[in-house]
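Supplementary Text 2. Reproducibility record for the structural model of the 506-residue chain.

All settings were left at their defaults, and a single model was retained for analysis rather than an ensemble. We include the record here because the model underlies the residue-level annotations in Supplementary Table 4.
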Amino acid sequence: MIESHAPAPPGAPPPWVGPPRLPVRPATGRFLVLACVFVCAACGLVYELELVALASYLTGDSVTQASVVLSVMVFAMGIGSLAAKRLRRHAAMAFGALEALLALVGGCSAMALYALFAWTGDWGGLWASGPRWLLVAFSLAIGLLIGAEVPLLMELIQRIRRQDAGGAVADLFAADYVGALVGGLAFPFLLLPLLGQLTGAMLTGAVNAIAGGALVLGLFRRDLTPRARWLLLVANLAVLGVLATATVLVDDFERAAREAVYGEDVRVALQTGVREVALTGGTDGRPLDLYVDGSLRVSGRDEDRYHEALVHPAMDGPHARVLVLGGGDGLAVREVLRHRGVRRVDIVALDPPVVDLARRDPALSRLNGHVYGDARVHVSTQDAFRRLRRPAPVPSYDVVIADLPAPGITASAKLYSEEFYGLVRRVLAPDGRLVVHAGPVSPRPRVFWTVDATLRAAGLRTTPYRVEGRGPGSAAGPGRTAGAARAPHDWGFVLTKKARPPGARP
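Retained model, structure tokens:
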């Protein structure tokens, strides 16, 4: 008998594809493959968001970090899809091995990034060595592995029941996009609040490994040799063992990393929602430092210099009613209450844990003069932008003090917008004053003058000024990232009043 070597007709299946050898009916097998697509897509998006969130937490620049992670990942996904075309002949084994590797890399990525940052403190410019490059490396590796899933899953679907390419692609991407939606919603609303960044990433890796391993070893086990089945089983068990061990040790790891970042005298460290608050010092003559999400909010070395410069120029004039935006630590309010004639101080602070510490921690409450025990002080823990936009009438204030995170931090950008200053202008009394912390001047003069220009565009007359710290390495107020080699040596402020209409009397 002579074997024919004539080319296969167009649309015919590849020569290595034999009849399906499944332990279940084709319809059930197809459902299981699409369910695995759903789970893997959810895990893949969690990995992406985890990298963005951790990098933003460490640097404070979420736009840059999201751009780097997502652009590198999308590029890598395309390369991974092309590379996986060569693996279609062994689609089941390749997919199982790929998911085990993806679970290990994605599950451990957050811990590896945080460890390098904590023990090197090297997260400088965009392309600095250390964690920045590791972020790109993890984004590239995870993107390659996620991209390689698509052609392999397509091959597995077609192995079960061949159909036109358009229908198979539609089914695959429907499951993929719905899974991405679930992963994207689970990350901020479930994983972060309940488990935290590190444990959440490792749990995601475990789910990824179980889903991929179960699909291949359960549904496509007859496509594997006995040796291949054992190798894949051992690989998945090893990955799950690594992730389980890391999860057990995560508390000790976080404690050691926190000490490496903040110093050895961490007194208070708590996680509320997605925020981490840490207090160091404040006892035995050591200066108190307050960190929120890795950013130094208060330094006992010269916080008085910062808060005096922020508050006292604005209090020169009527000051019966004062609104403090931010400043949950109570230190700006301490300076406000030193002025006679203050009848009411309203604080709008976004961080309930900071306010709670300012009330209860002996060192911090002593530093702020126990202002939360003063009957004139009223606090509201909500977003300042939302508070000022509410339709209910807002009382007018003689003084508004914006003691907010530095404008270079993307999450606070809306609080330095023309619209926000317009809202503040509405609540200012006719002779009221607004003072804005506009970040350090020396390293970022363009940011400082942009804040000044935005205030003028909102119809306010501006008086910019600058105050130096007491010495090298000192800092107070928002804007210093934990682990930075040197802190800002100055702070910039802009004092404003309402601009009078043309022809009005001074």
